Amino acid sequence: MSEQAYDYVIVGGGTAGAVLAARLSEDPDCRVCVIEGGPSDVGDRRVLELRNWINLLGSELDYDYPTVEQPRGNSFIRHSRARVLGGCSSHNTLISFAPLPGDLDAWAAAGCTGWDAATILPYFDRLQNNIVPVAAKDRNPIARDFVTAATAALGVPEISDFNAKPFTDGAGFFSVAYDPETGYRSSSSVAYLHPILDRPNLELMLETWVGQIIIGAGPRARGVRVRRPDGTTGEVYAEREVLVCAGAVDSPRLLLLSGVGGADDLRRLGIDVVADLPGVGENLIDHPESVIIWETDGPIPKNSVMDSDAGLFVRRDTSDPRPDLMFHFYQVPFSWNTERLGYPAIEHGVCMTPNIPHSRSRGRLWLRSADPAEKPALDFRYFTDPDGYDEQTIVDGLRIARQVAAQEPLKSWLVREVAPGLDVTSDEALSEYGRRAAHTVYHPLGTCKMGAADDPTAVVDPELRVRGVDGLRVVDGSIFPSITTVNPMVTVLMIGERAADLIRG
Ligand SMILES: Cc1cc2nc3c(=O)[nH]c(=O)nc-3n(C[C@H](O)[C@H](O)[C@H](O)COP(=O)(O)OP(=O)(O)OC[C@H]3O[C@@H](n4cnc5c(N)ncnc54)[C@H](O)[C@@H]3O)c2cc1C
Predict the structure, then answer these.
(1) How far apart (Å, rounded) are the C-alpha atoms in residues 363 and 287?
(2) pLDDT value of residue 3
(3) pTM of the model
(4) Cα separations (Å) of 201 from 48, 195, 222, 396, 504?
(5) In terms of CB atoms within 10 Å, which of 262, 277, 307, 463 comes out highest?
(6) Which family does it belong to (predicted)?
(7) What is the architecture, at CATH level 2, of domain 135-173+288-358+385-437?
(8) What spacing in Å lies between the alpha carbon of 88 and ligand 1's midpoint?
(9) Which residue has the CA at smallest separation from atom 15 of ligand 1?
């Protein structure tokens, strides 16, 4: 057993953790230690080449969390969470959207003072990632034709840069955090850590797992217990704060294992209660989606950034400026879930994935035992919102996708609809198919919800401090009080930037 001490101990060198580590260690007198469960991404082409993302799913660099049975959804979904420096930004598709103002203003209205759009949006300009619209050479002709067909069929505008200004609806090529010259990622690790790896006041402990936060009298977080790659254990002390950046699955898991969570649940598992915070692990949210697949008339051209380069936003409810349906357009037939349902595999095809930006079903995460090695249970409770909003969104999405597919110039590429097939037309049948073939875009969030200091369901206050424990903050996607309309990674990066300001005062 060995001991070391720093000013700040950051648990997880992932999307937010890398930003925080870089910013806090700008002060040469501040000693920062990042403890990351995975290896370095430096020089690892499997990770750095963005288009290889799909081969990382389920690999040794993926914690790969199953879900519990989903009676109204797909019980076979595996939630990828990256085990590598840069976290999910070293694993994902790096589609990059600044949050929409309405999403942030909703956070502020829910008690998160200081998280309104006017305060938070300027952090987008501070991000070091190279966020650019998909380069012309990477624009596949079928994706271009999808954009043209979507604008013609639905009357939505074509958007050339989704981050130029807030949008209500539209189709276009995404902005992506990448280097168009090399096709390499501009992950949080590449953008924030690679340039500063030789900073003497920054220590990276890789392949090192934090099993528990050490919480002393106060209660106050003093440090963490770790298991190193050689199997030895140790304690790493934080003289100022422990900053938990382990993501929406592992941050609540770590808090619970450390005695911070619902007291009754903790006692049942034999874990000593440090702070009774029933919100830990609750409010598990996601962007669920389904899929509609077409076979194409032979192979399509190969150029692409990561095979999902363009998309579409639709607004059904015009009383809200934000879109309420999203579609990724994939230049590959994403058929894992449809093949399991008996639909054929096809060699050449494309798909659209109707996605629920403001999903209303709420899930929860809990520990199955006090054993830190046992994966927590994830229950998203997909499609269980009482008003049926989520399932109706998928039904509407499947119909809108067909409208786009029936429109030239996309129509001429497509030979037939493979799944669900044109005979599936009623609301009931589209819902049944859509829910069984549902998937995730890997956006679990919200499990250490931020809220007003007196909100009993909140886990952290608007300065991201864990309620009831001094010297402890959570800084990652788990603090989302509600889900953003758009893909969340950029918001998570901005949380890292914001947290650095809050911590430095
Ligand atoms: C396949 C995939 C595709 C996605 N595509 C997009 C996209 O295109 N656009 C978008 O906006 N979002 C996308 N997302 C979601 C987005 O990447 C995440 O929401 C975001 O990156 C989460 O950041 P985080 O900081 O909360 O957690 P993470 O980035 O997951 O960081 C957590 C880090 O903590 C480490 N860790 C965890 N527990 C411990 C522990 N106990 N001890 C030590 N280390 C630990 C992990 O190894 C990891 O590095 C995608 C996600 C996935 C998985």
Answers:
(1) 12
(2) 66
(3) 0.98
(4) 26, 14, 19, 53, 16
(5) 277
(6) Belongs to the GMC oxidoreductase family.
(7) 2-Layer Sandwich (3.30)
(8) 3
(9) 443
In the prediction, which pLDDT does 2 show?
A: 59
pLDDT of residue 505: 87
Atom of ligand 1 nearest to the CA of 250: 38
477 is in an annotated binding site: yes
Other residues' Cβ atoms within 10 Å of the Cβ of residue 483 = 23
Task: Classify residue 227 as exposed, middle or buried by CB count within 10 Å of its CB (0-12, 13-18, 19+).
Answer: middle
Residue nearest to ligand 1 atom 3, measured at CA:
92
Using the CB atoms, write b or e for 235-255: b if 16+ within 10 Å. Answer: bbbbebbbbbbbbbbbbbbbb
Domain chopping of the chain, boundaries:
1-52+81-132+180-285+443-505, 135-173+288-358+385-437
Going by CA atoms, what residue is nearest to atom 37 of ligand 1? 246
- Sign for the CA dihedral angle at 184, 188, 193, 195 comes to positive
- Within 213-349, residue ranges assigned H as helices are 247-257, 263-268, 336-340
pLDDT at res. 1? 45
Cβ of 254 less than 6 Å from ligand 1: yes
Place of tokens 């499990």: 447
* Rounded-to-integer distance, Cα 364 and Cα 378, Å: 6
* DSSP-derived 3-state class of residue 390: helix
CB atoms within 10 A of CB 233: 12
Whether 210 has a binding-site annotation, put simply, is: yes
pLDDT-flagged residues of the chain (< 70): 1-3
CA angle 167, 487, 336 (to 5 degrees): 125
Position 360 scores a pLDDT of 98
CA–centroid distance, 311 to ligand 1, in Å, is: 22
Identical fold between 1-52+81-132+180-285+443-505 and 135-173+288-358+385-437:
no
